[in-house]
Write a structure and sequence with these properties.
The chain has three helices and no strands. It is an all-alpha fold. The protein is rod-shaped and about 80 Å long. The protein starts with 12 loop residues before the first helix and ends with a helix.
């Protein structure tokens, strides 16, 4: 639901902005937007398995290179 704030007649810009920000803060819209901004969905089981397999593969390659003295 959108929030509409109209400027009152004869109201200066500073008081209008402070009143508008207060209304937005009380409504909780800004808090919800900040929560959604950094939301990361849980990875699927398939992607978890693939990343685990990739990690194992990379660690094996690193171990082989260490034995050869490359790393």
């Amino acid at each position: 639901m959108p929030i509409t704030v109209k400027r009152r007649q004869g109201e200066n810009l500073n008081s209008f902005l402070s009143r508008a920000f207060k209304i937005i803060k009380k409504s909780g819209v800004l808090l919800e937007a900040r929560k959604r901004k950094y939301y990361h969905p849980k990875p699927t089981k398939r992607s978890e398995k693939l990343s685990a397999l990739h990690k194992i593969k990379v660690l094996k390659e690193v171990a082989i290179k260490r034995k050869k003295g490359i790393l």
